[in-house]
Amino acid sequence: EVQLLESGGGLVPRGGSLRLSCAASGLTFTSYAMSWVRQAPGKGLEWVSGISHSNSGDTTYYADSVKGRFTISRDSSKETVYLQMNRLRAEDTAVYYCATFSGSRSSDWFFDYWGQGTPVTVSS
Amino acid sequence: QSVLTQPPSVSGAPGQGVTISCTGSSSNIGAGYDVHWYQQLPGTAPKLLIYGNNNRPSGVPDRFSGSKSGTSASLAITGLQAEDEADYYCQTYDSSLSEYVFGTGTKVTVL
User: Fold this and answer.
1) Is residue A106 classed as helix, strand or coil in its secondary structure?
2) A48: left (phi > 0), else alpha (psi -120 to 50), else beta?
3) A49-72 burial, b for 16+ CB within 10 Å, e for fewer?
4) Which residue of A has its CA nearest to B100?
5) B88 touches chain A (CB under 8 A)
């Protein structure tokens, strides 16, 4: 059974930093591209960032709303993906979900397995 | 502002069918990118419902089906059940934004 367990969320002041972690199990980690998706309170889903599977050289992708502030990375030895979030803003307040990316080509990727999410609150 | 537009809500009686539309443009659905659908039950993480326009992951009932035409896609639910009450989101890739985009979301209510 595939499991994704996020951690690292919490309350942080505006302008601060936070690092989220997502530990994966039950899958061949190096074969999966990984991503982060967030959901602000009472709002819809927003893709945040993605990283290709290790065989593709760890190419990273970002939504414009976080580019230059967030950094995604992965550690295959720990089967964990990270999201380093800097210069946090009030509008970054959301539940952050880790999800696997699947699909035949990157432009057709979809999110097949999801974690339960970790909440991030940026105080203003 | 999402580039994929869905109706805010749809409803139907148990046993009936509903359809949720997802309207995009030439830089996303109209460009030929696959459309995927997710179900989010209250208080839970989203779950993949349909991938690659019309494919169901293992365990998803065949009451759920997807289709795509032009710059739009649709999710059809037949034989509505109480457990289908949830939010539903479409998703694809947008080449103008170079981003993976979600629809605005649709709340399905079973009357």
Assistant:
1) helix
2) alpha
3) bbbbbeeeeeeebbbeebeeebbb
4) A47
5) no
Judging contacts by C-beta atoms under 8 Å, the chain A residues touching residue B52 are 103, 108, 110
User: Residue B2: pLDDT band by 50, 70, 90 thresholds?
Assistant: confident
Alpha helices in chain B (DSSP H): none
What pLDDT, in 10s, does the model give residues A75-109? 999 999 999 999 999 999 999 999 999 988 888 99
| For A61, nearest residue in chain B (alpha carbons) | B99
pLDDT, one tens digit per residue, over B52-96 is 999 999 999 999 999 999 999 999 999 999 999 999 999 999 999
* Per-residue model confidence (pLDDT) at position A7: 97
Number of C-alpha atoms within 13 angstroms, CB side, residue B3? 20
Q: Which residues contact A110 (CB under 8 A, 6 or more apart)?
A: A101, A102, A103, B34, B36, B48, B51, B52, B91
**pLDDT band at residue B1 using 50, 70 and 90 as cut-offs:** confident
